[in-house]
Specification:
The structure is a single chain. The chain is 42% helix and 17% strand. It is α/β, with parallel strands linked by helices. It has one domain (6-227): Adenoviral Proteinase, Chain, CATH 3.40.395. Strands 3-4-5-6-7 form a five-stranded mixed β-sheet, covered by helices on one side. β5 and β6 (120-124) form a beta hairpin.
C-alpha cells in the first residue's frame, strides 16, 4: 500500500445495528503487524470476522456488537449523544442478546458487555483495575435508562456492574487492544456464553504471544480475503 492509500471497509447493518464503514490505511496495518497500538478500524475489522463466526455457529441472535466509533471518548460526540447511541443499539438488539462494546478511553481499550434483559453490565479492563467509575459508567448507565424508558420497562434503580476480575492481564502498555480482541473471540466461541463464571475470580492468567498471534492471524487472513 502507498502511504496515502486507504481501504474502505463497509459493514452490514446487522453487525452494529446500522450501516457503517471504516478506513484502513498503511499506518494501521504497520502498527498491527509490529504489535503497536491497535486502531479502532482494526478492531472493527476483527468484529466483522467474529460476526462471520457467529453466523457459522448460528449464534447471531445471542451475541451482537456495538461500533466503537459510536461511543469512544474522542470524536464520538457528547456523553448524552453516546448514551443515546447505546440506547439505539439496544433497541435494535435481539431479545436476550448480549452486546459487546469495545471502548477506548482516549489511550486505553476496554471491553464492556451489555446484558439488557438482565440489566447487568460486565466490565473487562486488561489492566485489571476495579470497576470503572466516572464518565464511561455514567454514559452506559444513562444509555440503559433511556432504553428502558423507551420500552416503558421498569428497570433497577441502578444497573448492576460486574467486574470480570479473572481475565488475562496485559503485559505491556501496547497490548490492551489485542487483549480486548481476544476476550471477544473467547466469548463468541463459547456457545454457553459462560464467560463471567470463567473470569469472575481474580487470578494470575495472561495470554502468551501465541495466543495473541492467533487473533492477529485471523485478522490478517480475513482482511486479505475480504478487502484486498
Amino acid at each position: 500500500m502507498r502511504n496515502a492509500q486507504t481501504i474502505i471497509c463497509e459493514f452490514d447493518e446487522k453487525i452494529f445495528g446500522h450501516p457503517s464503514k471504516t478506513f484502513i490505511c498503511k499506518h494501521d496495518i504497520n502498527n498491527f503487524v509490529t504489535m503497536k497500538e491497535v486502531s479502532g478500524s482494526c478492531i472493527g475489522i476483527y468484529i466483522r470476522y467474529l460476526y462471520c463466526v457467529l453466523k457459522k455457529t448460528k449464534m447471531v441472535d445471542m451475541v451482537g456488537f456495538m461500533d466503537n466509533t459510536d461511543v469512544g471518548a474522542i470524536g464520538c460526540g457528547s456523553p448524552i449523544e453516546r448514551s443515546r447511541a447505546i440506547a439505539d443499539r439496544l433497541k435494535r438488539a435481539k431479545r436476550g442478546q448480549i452486546i459487546l462494546v469495545p471502548y477506548n478511553s482516549g489511550c486505553h481499550w476496554m471491553l464492556t458487555v451489555l446484558s439488557p434483559e438482565e440489566d447487568i453490565v460486565y466490565f473487562m479492563d486488561p489492566l485489571k483495575r476495579r470497576l470503572c467509575t466516572g464518565e464511561w459508567k455514567n454514559i452506559v448507565d444513562n444509555g440503559i435508562k433511556i432504553h428502558n424508558a423507551q420500552l416503558k420497562r421498569q428497570g433497577r434503580k441502578t444497573t448492576t456492574w460486574k467486574n470480570c476480575a479473572g481475565i488475562p492481564e496485559q503485559k505491556t502498555d501496547k497490548d490492551c487492544g489485542y487483549y480486548v480482541m481476544r476476550y471477544m473471540k473467547e466469548i463468541v466461541e463459547d456457545k454457553s456464553l459462560d464467560f463471567f463464571t470463567k473470569w469472575e475470580r481474580r487470578g494470575k492468567t495472561t495470554y502468551t504471544q501465541e495466543d495473541i498471534d492467533v487473533v492477529r492471524n485471523e485478522w490478517a487472513k480475513f482482511m486479505v480475503k475480504t478487502y484486498m
